[in-house]
Amino acid sequence: MHGITQKIYLSLTPPTQEDFVSDQERILRELRRQGIQAELPLSILQSLYPFCPRSDWKFTVSLAYNGSVWSVVRMEAGDTTRQHYGICADLGSTTLVMQLIDCGTGQVLGEASAYNHQIPFGEDILTRIFYAKDQPEHLAEIRQATLDTFQEVLTSLTEQTGILASDCISMVVAGNTTMIHFLLGMDAFCVFSAPYAVHALDPGFLPAREFGFSLPGYVYCYPGKANYLGGDIISGAIATGIHDKEELSLFFDIGTNGELIIGNREFLLCGAGAAGPALEGGVVKTGMRAVEGAVERLQIQDGVFHLHTINNAAPVGICGSGIVDMLAQLFLNGWITIQGKFVPDKSPLIHMEDNEYCVTYAPGLCFYQSDIDEFLKTKAAAVTMIHYMLDLTGISPEEISHYYMAGAFGAHISKESAVTIGMYPDVDREKLVPVGNASLKGAKMLLLDCELLDRLPALLENMEYVQFGAVDNFINLMVAATAIPHTNLEQYPSVVEQMKRRHLL
Amino acid sequence: MHGITQKIYLSLTPPTQEDFVSDQERILRELRRQGIQAELPLSILQSLYPFCPRSDWKFTVSLAYNGSVWSVVRMEAGDTTRQHYGICADLGSTTLVMQLIDCGTGQVLGEASAYNHQIPFGEDILTRIFYAKDQPEHLAEIRQATLDTFQEVLTSLTEQTGILASDCISMVVAGNTTMIHFLLGMDAFCVFSAPYAVHALDPGFLPAREFGFSLPGYVYCYPGKANYLGGDIISGAIATGIHDKEELSLFFDIGTNGELIIGNREFLLCGAGAAGPALEGGVVKTGMRAVEGAVERLQIQDGVFHLHTINNAAPVGICGSGIVDMLAQLFLNGWITIQGKFVPDKSPLIHMEDNEYCVTYAPGLCFYQSDIDEFLKTKAAAVTMIHYMLDLTGISPEEISHYYMAGAFGAHISKESAVTIGMYPDVDREKLVPVGNASLKGAKMLLLDCELLDRLPALLENMEYVQFGAVDNFINLMVAATAIPHTNLEQYPSVVEQMKRRHLL
Question: Is the Cβ of A45 closer than 8 Å to some Cβ of chain B?
Fold first, then answer.
């Protein structure tokens, strides 16, 4: 098994009277002997002399696959096969995360991230899309901001590892469809506009120099399936291996959008829809990103909030995992109803402010009725996607062997709280598997395993795509899912159990 | 049959709710339907919007083959398939000749040429090679001079046809190994230095932009077989079709070097060696290129020279075809012996000058003994190549159905004179076929016939290469071939006939 790059040490016999094939052919012939069909681009042809004789014909070639053929993109004297590096990247709307990988061992040598430089053009994606829409100069700005983000993280990786970007051969990028459009410099309005035919879903291998990167090889963008089901999700699904297993799995990435894949090696049904920013703390009034001072865990005991903040700092707001705990705790203590409405007489912490009920969870920090309503709508959207897909396939929640929950959010959330509020299905907790940055993992896997490339087209082809917005009874289903945990309590036996214990039923 | 480029008009159905594949896939899908596996490079991905909707999804794609896959290198609104252009080029050490081809009809729309801008770095190739040897800046200068030559001819073609270089898709270049090395920016000392392992013989398809050309596609360099048997010869052989015929043919390109291919569809034996500049008038004291005032034909009648000059101008020197006539006429009139030595008492025009005999062929213009000696050595080298190859294969001169004589020289030379001096074999004159710029023809053929590409590797692989310098008894054979027509008169029955008629035997 090898990845989309290779380093091969060649110890060639110098030309003789008997064997006077060209330098080019001398190299290609040896590579063919090793089973590799390759080509030499102009820059390499120009560097053959005096490099070959000076290196005594003992050198290492860096090979980069370009989708059709292997290209020799670098030559180094001596045996440098052990310095074989590559980059994988998860390009999110908020954050770009990258790893510098030792492609020989698969080891992660460095990881770094940066906020996406697109953010000044709009916190949310739509603002950025409208900024660039039909304005080539603005689009160029956004592309440049994206490229700057990559450069920033590449620099961090070099500082961390001492390895230059130019010593890495190729890069695999997983990103949602909008992000890939911006990275390539394509107008992304199509992503959000019917009939949702985007400009490109499978840009493939593009020379890294066309991005201004100093890597000598290529940038490979993970192919997407549809506008809302981008390469990041395909990459994430690949990382969990659901397409390879006999057992049924469900892969779910919840963020501003929810993307979901259900299936196994026989079939894959996938869907995506807008969930809303609430899950990431975006709409909640005191919501914030998961940085220092954010409440990430909480409990209500004996009428008192017990908070845990990031870095144990004084609380300044609440992040996604804190919000899930908040709802679960408010509900289990009877401070909110099954409809998520405050019951003011349950606690003196519940009071009116700005014409709505809210609860003070820390000095000066309140969680509002509108926050709850917003969050529950988002939760409902996300959950309905799962329910809808299960319905569609006739699969019951128990038949799913594993629920892979992707995203930073999935990694930090309390499973119990998420089940309590009906955000996660009420199944054996071991079946709920947070997979962290699955998209980055899938990018790394492809960097290291070229054969995945051959499998991707069939995988994408066989995926059935459901666009939830287009589903008729989606709204009806959502209304039922707005309740805590759900209008249909039968699906949540362990929550019912707890409710009974706490005399809520 | 199609060439290495295609133009295809696509009339696509715009995206709908039912068919919302990406623009990229919409184009590739239709091309696949037409049997073409293609890819879209970044520049094209970036131009899809708003181009596709603005053109009402009716546009023409320009496809360029890159050796592995078809690349969409241009999109034009509407049906522009009839404007389908390409360039073929014969890059000689002295002259670059190019044609602008209508790739739809195969018609030559324009032809232009220019002196190679390398000439200021050295009239002969070796001087240029030494100038650039181990001096990257000098090599860069020579490369730039080569590229400037291309630009000059491209400009001429545009002036002639009104078609821009950027409207031509790809270019096929046939050139000798040194010229291709310089065009690509590779040190060419290897071409002339044992063990003659050059840097590259088959650079393949390289993006035209890497040459600074405005063509959106590729530059394809005809592959060579060996240092002295470059792409120009392979191209020339292809043009004559000797590799396709059942009959035995001989392809010969005589210039400063002699290159020769003998064979048929079953086998091809090829060889090359230095012939010397004399054949092109380079060493002859009053020798000159075939330009105005050059004696290109002559006869001696009743002891008097009858000259024909180019453009009927006053004679200022003698070019290749004139020299061949000169030797034949001097010989047939008994003014020189079978060894090529002047017989001074045969004409008052023969006299001593600068310590050697010479003959005055025009006012102030003499042809010297040393000119004759030099030319005969060169003739001997060329002829010996043919004899040697025939000996090697056991084929008699009569068994060869056609002798294809390439090069401007071959086109203008008098067959009778060439046979008389033993430069051409003494066979049925119809078998002696001047093919002109065969190298340019072969380049054009490949531009228009992509299938040739598939055949080239096997063709090159199956060629047996003989390097004449390396042949032991080559010098002995050459000595015999220095005589007029040859020491072995049996091979020249028609010359013997004439000699008898003129009482020279």
Answer: yes
Asked if B80 and B102 touch (Cβ cutoff 8 Å), the reply is no
The one-letter amino acid code at A80 reads T
CB contact under 8 A, B134 and A20: no
Quick one: pLDDT band at residue B149, thresholds 50, 70, 90?
A: very high
Q: What is the mean pLDDT of chain B?
A: 93
With a CB cutoff of 8 Å and minimum separation 6, the contacts of A411 are A405, A434, A435, A436, A437
Listed ranges A256-265, B257-266, B347-356, B407-416; the one with the highest mean pLDDT:
B347-356
Angle subtended by helix axes A369-393 and A320-332, to nearest 10: 90
Answer whether A49 sits within 8 Å of B186, measured CB to CB. Answer: yes
- List the single residue in A25, A197, A207 with the smallest CB-CB distance to B20: A197
Least confident of A21-30, A404-413, B40-49, B73-82: A404-413
Half-sphere exposure of A442 (CA within 13 A, CB side): 34
Rounded Cα distance between B447 and B217, Å, is: 12
* B28-48 mean pLDDT: 97
B191 touches chain A (CB under 8 A): no
Place of tokens 């002859």: B284
For chain A, the distance separating the N- and C-terminal CA atoms, rounded to the nearest angstrom, is 57
Structure tokens at A207: 């020379």
Confidence check on the interface: ipTM exceeds 0.85, yes or no: yes
Among A266, A313, A260, smallest CA distance to A291 is for: A313
Query: What are the residues facing A75 on neighbouring strands?
Result: A61
* Residue B475 confidence (pLDDT): 77
Q: Is B288 helix (H, G, I), strand (E, B) or coil?
A: coil
Chain A residue with the nearest C-alpha to that of B53: A199
* Band (A415; pLDDT cuts 50, 70, 90): very high
